[in-house]
Amino acid sequence: MLCCMPGVAFVPALLVSWSSAAFIISYVIAVLAGHVEPLVPYISDTGTKPPESGIFGFMINISALLGVITMYIRYLLIEKQNESSHFVRSSCNIFSLCIGLMGCIGMGIVATFQELSVPSVHDIGALVAFGSGVVYITLQSIMSYKSCPRWNTYFVCHIRMAISVISCIAFIPMIVFASQISMTKIDWTPGEKDYTYHFVSAVCEWTVAFGFIFFFLTFIRDFQRVSLRISTEIHED
C-alpha cells in the first residue's frame, strides 16, 4: 500500500507506521514479560531489558534514519517552493533542518544507550530528542502558515500548530516532574515513593512522542507533490 502512494508520500507514512510499531511492540513485549507495569511506563522502560531491548533499539534507530530522510526531503521541498513564493528565509529552513537532525541523533543515543546501563547518556539523548523535536515541529508549523494559501491549507496549518502547542505544553511538565524522581527504575507500582512524578512525566512523554507521529502524518499530502529523479550523465573524452 505504501508503494502505491504518489510522489514520496510513502516516506513519512513509513516513518509514522514504523515508529508507532516500535513503541507498541516493545510495550506489549515488556508488559507480557512482566518487566514493566501496564499503566503508563516510560517509553524507554519498555526497551530496557531483553528481549524487548534489542527490538526497541533496532526499530528506534531505523525510525531515526527515516526521520533524517523525511526532514531532508521536507527541507528540499520548502527550498523548491521558496524559489517562486519567497515565504521564508533559506537560513530559517536550514536551521529547522539542523534542529530536526539533532533530534534524530538524540533518538539514536536513546536507542543505543540503555536507561539502566548508562542513565546519564540516555537521559541526555532523550532530552535532545524531545527538546529538538518540539522546536522542529514548532518551526515547521510557523513556516507552514507563511506558505499559505499557495502551498498549504489553513486547516492543515491549524492542525500542525495545535499539535505543536500540545507537545510544547506536555514537554515542560515531562522534564519538571522527571527531575523530581530520586531513583532510576522501570518497575513502578502505584503508591510507592515518587510514583506520582513518574506517572505525570510518563503521560507527558507519551503525549509528546505521539505528537511527533501525528505531526509527520500531516506531511504525507505535501510529499505527494515530490518525485524522485535519477539522472545519468556520460562524458566522452
TrEMBL record:
Gene: Dram1
Major subcellular location class: membrane
InterPro entries to which the protein is assigned, alphabetical: CWH43_N, DRAM/TMEM150_Autophagy_Mod
Record's bilayer topology term: Multi-pass membrane protein
Record-annotated CWH43-like N-terminal domain positions: 8-225
Entry's Gene Ontology cellular component terms: endomembrane system; lysosome
Family: Belongs to the DRAM/TMEM150 family.
Species: Heliornis fulica (sungrebe)
Subcellular location: Endomembrane system
Keyword Membrane listed: yes
Keywords: Membrane, Transmembrane, Transmembrane helix
Alphabetical GO biological process terms: regulation of autophagy
TM helices/strands, residue ranges: 7-33, 53-73, 94-114, 120-139, 151-177, 197-220
Name of the molecule in the record: DRAM1 protein
